[in-house]
ABC transporter ATP-binding protein (Undibacterium terreum), 438 residues
Amino acid sequence: MFKYYFLLGVRSLRRNPALTALMVLTLAVGVAASVSTLTILQVMSSDPIPHKSSRLLVPLLDNGPLKGYSPGNKAEDNQMTYRDAMNLLASKQGVRRVVISGIADNIEPERADMPVMEVAGLATSSDYFAMFETPFLYGAPWTEAEDKAATGVIVLSRLQSEKMYGKTNPLGKHLRLHGNDFQIVGVLDTWNPVPRYTHLINGSGGSFNGEEGIFIPFATAVRMEFGQSGSVTCRDNVTPGFQGFLDSECTWLQFWFETKTESDRQDLQNYLNAYANEQRKLGRLPRNAPNKLFNVMEWMDNLSIVRSDSKLSVWLSFGFLLLCLVNTVGLLLAKFSVRASEVGVRRALGATRAEIFKQFLIETAVVGLAGGLLGLPLSFLGMRIIADQSAGLSVVPGMDWMMLGITFLLSVSASVLAGLLPTWRACQVTPALQLKSQ
């Protein structure tokens, strides 16, 4: 009987076409608003590297002054000093360690016909590429030995490489950066994790957009005295000169550990606590604040990557869907009320209330299916509008298969829910009264 009732539901769409179109459109708009905002939120809050996110850890040491500090306050700064970063880099804790600093400068290509280009990127350590599993189009990362020697080597993004060399392999070529000669040893393939969990602080383009154009060894950036591209927090007087800046308590670096197993996190925490105690003996870290470790998801939460207004938008969109359902209930009541005589005849011929209920409920599900089909393109349009309003969301991918299924499920479920009252009312028709009125 289901197939028969389903076909009846399809045919019923042609009855009162204006009323049917209004119901379908009402459901489609409500579902599209809900699904588009839910999709954006799901992308913003998703785990960008789920198979190892619990093993990628960000350490946080509070080196702020004691004045004005109250125990239990959240750390005012989420970056690290040069001294701490170098000590942790040399600690041999975990299986990989990465220091990150933003850089921005001008590139002078070898070709005389190429103009000087502004470029932003990272000064980092060789473990960066293996830790974050970056794909390579050409070449490979620089080595740990080149890290220690502060060699003039560089890795380009695919986009930056194609701007300068087209589709050709640029390995071995040289360019000038910050007035120094660099040799190209690698070119990354397209790699745009969303969110940009590797560089959430000071990342050019925001947390969901943009990419790094170049990568150079951090030790090389220090040797060549590259300027810092990003926020720098200095709470005390700094000795003049670049070395004075390195020796200061200014925070400007980001740091990552990768552990072999998730259970190694406690061992790393114990090391971090012991390290902080040793630094306090040297007169540093006066606040004696807890030393923290954040995995990828905790780090994004600490930095409030998903803002409260994004969550509020989802709740508001579902509130709008509820309003659409109320309107759909009224429209279904109007549609089913004109079919009272049909229900009376069916009841007189022996149809049970259960059969009538089943028939009308399947008809409402057909309306929901039609609403889902219309809601799908409206959902894509909604996501496009949201992305156009925010440059940071312009790279948010489209709807995946799970969200596609949710669109139809939500539409059908919403229509069935809206149809419960009208369907129940239709089943209460008294056959004798309807037959006398004919």
Observations:
- The longest strand covers residues 96-109.
- The longest helix spans residues 353-389.
- The chain has two domains: 2-45+307-436, 53-302.
